[in-house]
Design a protein that fits this description.
Elements lengths: L2 H13 L2 H8 L3 H15 L4 E4 L2 E4 L1 H25 L7 E7 L4 H15 L3 E7 L2 H9 L5 E6 L6 E16 L10 E2 L8 E4 L4 H12 L7 E4 L2 H9 L5 E4 L9 E7 L3 E9 L6 H12 L5
Parallel strand pairs: 3-4, 3-5, 7-11, 8-9
Antiparallel strand pairs: 1-2, 5-12, 6-10, 6-11, 6-12
Helix pairs in contact: 1-2, 1-3, 1-4, 2-3
Amino acid sequence: MELHQIRYFLAVVKAGSFVAAAEQEGVAQPSLSQQIKKLESSLGVPLFDRLGRSVKLTAYGQAFMPEAEAVLRQLRRARRAIDALLPEDCGSLTVGVIPTVLPYAIAAPLAAFRAANPAVTVTLRELTTDVLVNSLRNGEVDVAVLALPIRHPEVVCSELYREPLMVALASHHPLAAAPELELSRLQSEPMLLLREGHCLRQDVLSACSQARARFENLQESDNLVSIFAMVAHGFGISLVPERTAQHAAGCTLVPIKPRHFRRIGYAQAAGHAALPVQKHLIRFLRAWPWAN
């Protein structure tokens, strides 16, 4: 039995499938499945009932799960005990970031932080807000970068920057040359949204509500890449953060009126003593020139 097998087991439990767990862990699905089989072989019992694309814990799996969670909690505590004694430019950190921020805003400063601190190991986890909050509380993530506000008694947050939402239109759209747009002028267009679970979806709906614009034809997608492709090919419009402009091939981003700003910040678990390297990262992020 190996630690990564225990981690994969718990990932499958949380994700509900081998495919989703493999994506979350950043490994190939056949490799993850093989490690689960090795874990089951070492225990001598099946941990999961395979039900097509989904899985269900067996009675053995249910008995094993709390013990597996305890092993990883103890390992995290041991790691923090060591990292707490290291200087701020050494140690390891797990940073969680929401998908609508990681490639567009946080990748560059985190890369700069790693380059400036080669003795620090940074593990990135791209997760939705609800999962990030739980991961902070459980000690699986040290720092989260996400959209604010987060109202949870066990999480403390601070703002890093604000950015306006923009209307994404196909570059050939008749209104693409407008200096700004009221959303009410676009109500006849299909509105493309991220699915439930993405905080940007709520930001978009809030902006529409603020502008008193009602979009009856709502279409959903799992990521902004797909939304940009659909907008570029005339399937509808969307509201996106300004920082995504460089990734919006075939689209034109136009300011909305009235302006609606998205707040991005970092979160940490309340009551958990921050590691020296964790404080170092926070200072680095706060000093980053977000206006550029």
